[in-house]
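Table 4 source record.
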Amino acid sequence: MHESHYATFVPRLKKAYASVTVGSPLVDGNLVGPLIDEMAFSAMQRALDAARALGATVSGGERVEIGRRAG
C-alpha cells in the first residue's frame, strides 16, 4: 500500500477485523473458522515472523480463542 493511504486505511481495516467472530464455521454469525491444526498455526506464525524480519508491520496474528472477537 502506498504510504499516503496508510494512516487512514489501517485504522479502518483494524476496526473492521475487530468485528469478525472466529469460531466454528457451522455456527451462524461466525465469519472465520480456525486454522485446521497446530501445524497450520505454526506455519502461519513462521510466515508472520518472516514478514516481520523483512521489515513488515504485522497487526494481529495472535491466537484467537474460539467464539472470541478477532483484533
